[in-house]
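Hi R.,

As promised on Friday, here is the backbone we talked about, encoded as structure tokens. Could you run it through your design pipeline when you get a chance and send me back a sequence?
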């Protein structure tokens, strides 16, 4: 086989030696191994590449993709794909794959390792010994046995932490509003539907959730102050979930006894005051940095690339370029709408779901619903899962959350030509209902939210305001936004009855901060406010 017929594979991230050896041993590939290459070198090398294997150091943006006319596969040798322009890759027909779940155990073990290091003063004792010292009493610590650990996020890493914590005879509490009750039972974790209530009883707090609009700074001063004095905090998940300045203030006051941090809001240059604080145990984002995890990641990425270039079915696709080629424009439009409705549910749901029912109505009822169902699940799971979600793995994510999906067809529906209705149910009769319609096979609209009817395009920043149906509320909301320089794009209002309750979907030109959302709650007659991004 001549060099011109070999598959050109550019590797710009460090892989384990076994993976590099495996790539080089494949006689169908020509390997260029250039870990951490400069941007200019990347743009030169990618011009002839058919496969690009990356890690977090390489930004695969539109410019890189445009410089690679023959690129067919982008393989991320890790879980996160935030450095890849996925939508643009999909548009160009480029398959994006990753390696989910390969560092789950490593991250969970580091969580317990960091906790033990804090409570037993292991690093300080080590340094004292290395310096010739010997002081047994200076490093008296605490046991894990009997301590109450509160886990935020009972997903891939969180459930392993629960298992390990039980091994140390800890009391295990958990807060995760997106998993069914049986998931808590399976992991022997006491469920909390209210985060504040869990924090008031928690000696050790550990977070294992994705970083998104909802979780950014979710543990701030108000949350930390709820914890008992002398508690410990761990972040082995994503920098920014815990407000670092607020944490540093609580460490300085002594309210928080110690913090173990592996992921930082600003990497590779963390907040200096926090990093240098004597009661902070620090590591440089090494959650996945074990030989076992790196071997597993390298082996997986090699296997997946070989499958992809051979035209086989890969196990971990992040996108599906062929999705855009659905024959039916109506089905394609409803798949897009379903993902938006799933994302909406994931951002406003306030109870643990047990079932999700999809009702296909009118013309939609007679079509193949597989893509609509997957899109709905992907939109929902993408908001709540600690890990990246694809069309292929989303079913597994939903099953792990303990949620049962059901479907119903209603071809006799005649209010619109077609419609999609989704009902989410939880314990104690709690429900959330959303619906959507598509006009002319392409114009998607949110049409239903908990008994209120609309026709709003599901895109951009949207504020959902429920209020008592009283005069002046609309004006107060508009005035509130105007005072903060937030422009209203559209305002859709519905009410259940005169003088009852009203619901407004307000699309705005710029996002509203969490503080502003809380302030909006204080407007007279406002009952609830949610800020979502679609």
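Update: got your reply. Pasting your designed sequence below so it's all in one thread:
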């Amino acid at each position: 086989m001549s060099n011109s017929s070999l598959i050109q594979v550019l590797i710009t991230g460090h892989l384990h030696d076994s993976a590099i050896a495996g790539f080089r041993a494949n006689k169908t590939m020509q390997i260029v191994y250039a870990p951490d290459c400069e941007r200019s070198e990347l743009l030169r090398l990618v011009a002839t590449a058919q496969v690009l294997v990356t890690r977090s150091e390489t930004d695969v943006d539109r410019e890189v993709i445009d410089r690679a006319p023959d690129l067919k596969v982008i393989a991320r040798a890790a879980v996160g794909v935030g450095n890849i322009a996925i939508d643009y890759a999909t548009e160009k027909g480029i398959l994006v794959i990753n390696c989910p779940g390969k560092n789950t155990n490593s991250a969970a073990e580091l969580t317990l390792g960091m906790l033990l290091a804090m409570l037993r003063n292991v690093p300080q004792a080590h340094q004292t010994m290395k310096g010739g010292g010997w002081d047994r009493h200076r490093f008296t610590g605490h046991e894990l046995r009997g301590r109450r650990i509160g886990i935020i996020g009972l997903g891939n890493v969180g459930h392993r932490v629960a298992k390990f914590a039980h091994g140390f005879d800890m009391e295990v509490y958990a807060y995760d509003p997106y998993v069914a009750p049986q998931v808590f039972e399976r992991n022997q974790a006491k469920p909390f539907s209210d985060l504040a209530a869990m924090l008031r009883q928690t000696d050790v707090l550990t977070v294992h959730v994705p970083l998104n609009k909802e979780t950014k700074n979710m543990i701030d001063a108000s949350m930390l102050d709820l914890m008992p004095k002398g508690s410990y905090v761990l972040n082995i998940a994503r920098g920014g979930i815990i407000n670092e300045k607020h944490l540093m203030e609580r460490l300085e006051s002594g309210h928080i006894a110690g913090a173990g941090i592996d992921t930082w809001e600003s990497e590779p240059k963390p907040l200096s005051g926090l990093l240098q604080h004597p009661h902070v145990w620090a590591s440089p984002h090494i959650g996945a940095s074990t030989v076992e995890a790196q071997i597993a990641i390298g082996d997986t990425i090699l296997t997946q690339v070989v499958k992809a270039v051979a035209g086989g079915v890969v196990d971990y696709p992040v996108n599906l370029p062929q999705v855009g080629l659905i024959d039916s424009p109506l089905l394609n439009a409803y798949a897009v709408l379903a993902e938006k409705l799933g994302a909406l549910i994931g951002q406003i749901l306030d109870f643990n779901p047990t079932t999700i029912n999809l009702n296909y109505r009118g013309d939609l009822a007679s079509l193949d619903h597989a893509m609509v169902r997957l899109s709905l699940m992907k939109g929902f799971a993408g908001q709540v899962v600690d890990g990246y979600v694809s069309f292929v793995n989303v079913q597994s994510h939903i099953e792990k959350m303990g949620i049962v999906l059901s479907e119903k067809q209603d071809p006799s529906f005649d209010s619109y030509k077609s419609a999609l209705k989704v009902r989410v149910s939880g314990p104690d009769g709690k429900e959330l209902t959303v619906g959507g319609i598509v006009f002319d096979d392409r114009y998607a609209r949110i049409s239903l939210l908990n008994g209120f009817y609309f026709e709003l395009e599901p895109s951009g920043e949207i504020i959902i305001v429920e209020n008592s149906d009283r005069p002046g509320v609309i004006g107060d909301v508009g005035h509130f936004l105007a005072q903060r320089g937030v422009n209203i794009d559209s305002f859709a209002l519905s009410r259940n009855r005169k003088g009852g309750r009203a619901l407004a979907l307000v699309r705005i030109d710029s996002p509203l901060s969490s503080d502003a959302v809380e302030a909006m709650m204080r407007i007279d007659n406002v009952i609830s406010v949610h800020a979502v991004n679609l």
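One thing I noticed while checking it: Residues 104-282 form a domain with the Rossmann fold fold (CATH 3.40.50.720).

Thanks again,
M.
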